[in-house]
Amino acid sequence: MAQIMTVVSVLGPPLIALAGLALRLRWQALRDQRRQDTLLALTSCLPISGVVEIEDLRDDGSRLHVRVTTALEPHAG
Length: 77
Prior knowledge:
Layout: H1 2-44, E1 50-57, E2 63-70
């Protein structure tokens, strides 16, 4: 019985920490996938001749700055 308690007390905390890390990484991967899907949906609605500049600051302040400019059509005449 003492051996089981020793094994549990030695291996328990690292296994719990590893499980927490795995859950956090999964959450971040899902968040990044949702962010990528959103950007793809937004950019698919833009005109073909447009230019998209994306500035993305994450984790500390999670800021997204998108600038969309369309190319001017040349004058005919």
